[in-house]
Amino acid sequence: MIDLMKTTIRKMGNSQGVLIPKPFLAQLGLENEVEMNVEDDAIVLRRPRSRVREGWAEASKSIAASGDDKLVMGEFANDDDSELEW
Length: 86
Fold this sequence. Notes:
Pfam family, one: MazE_antitoxin
Protein name: Transcriptional regulator/antitoxin, MazE
GO molecular function: DNA binding
Radius of gyration: 23 Å
Strand content: 15-25%
Order of helices and strands: EEHEEH
Keywords: DNA-binding
Domain SpoVT-AbrB: 7-50
Helix content: 10-25%
Shape: elongated
Strand order of the largest sheet: 1-2
Low-confidence stretches: none
Structural class: alpha+beta
Distance between the termini: 61 Å
């Protein structure tokens, strides 16, 4: 376990940020994303509970397999579609 460490808040474009040392990230298994919130007087970073769009591919395949993947709005053309050459 890594001991308490002080770091500085740095200007990053129009925002500010804190660099997180690699050993901290490794200890928690953090890679590209974190969940962040404020609890009492602390900013808390956690591993995301689920990845964005996790399970969407499987759900899409299931919908297609059941035949429930028809277009909701139906087909519609744009004004100049007749000029397109395929």
